[in-house]
């Protein structure tokens, strides 16, 4: 089963929470995204061990799940601060000031705006992958 894990930056580091587990909470915290992921995986193992230690079947959603990690917009721009907001805004066709408001949590992007930003970031990634040096 694919589990959606949201990455958010807080004042003390990163938090990750899984949104589509119905009967369980699964989170992780850490100073970095990788540390938060590691903490979440440890929490998953603890949860699975509780089931097995008690002789209960592990629910399907906890049995070797596949995680899809998603950033919220402010956390993405915090974690990838080398990316210029002005360039992403231009690629996305969104007003730069509005994207800065999304980054600073002064406004919140609609699903359509979020997808435009995601597409712009992916386009930039493809352009970077095509770069060659001599």
From TrEMBL:
It comes from the Bacteria. This is Predicted nuclease of the RNAse H fold, HicB family.
């Amino acid at each position: 089963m694919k589990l959606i894990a949201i990455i958010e930056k807080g004042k003390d580091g990163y938090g990750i929470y899984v949104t589509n587990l119905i009967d369980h909470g699964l989170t992780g915290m850490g100073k970095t995204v990788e540390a938060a992921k590691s903490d979440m995986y440890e929490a998953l193992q603890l949860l699975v061990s509780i089931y097995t230690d008690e002789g209960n079947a592990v629910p399907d959603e906890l049995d070797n799940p596949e995680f899809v990690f998603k950033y919220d917009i402010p956390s993405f721009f915090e974690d990838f601060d080398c990316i210029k907001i002005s360039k992403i805004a231009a690629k996305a066709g969104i007003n730069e000031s509005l994207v800065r408001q999304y980054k600073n949590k002064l406004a919140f992007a609609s699903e359509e705006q979020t997808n435009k930003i995601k597409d712009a970031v992916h386009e930039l990634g493809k352009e970077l992958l095509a770069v060659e040096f001599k």
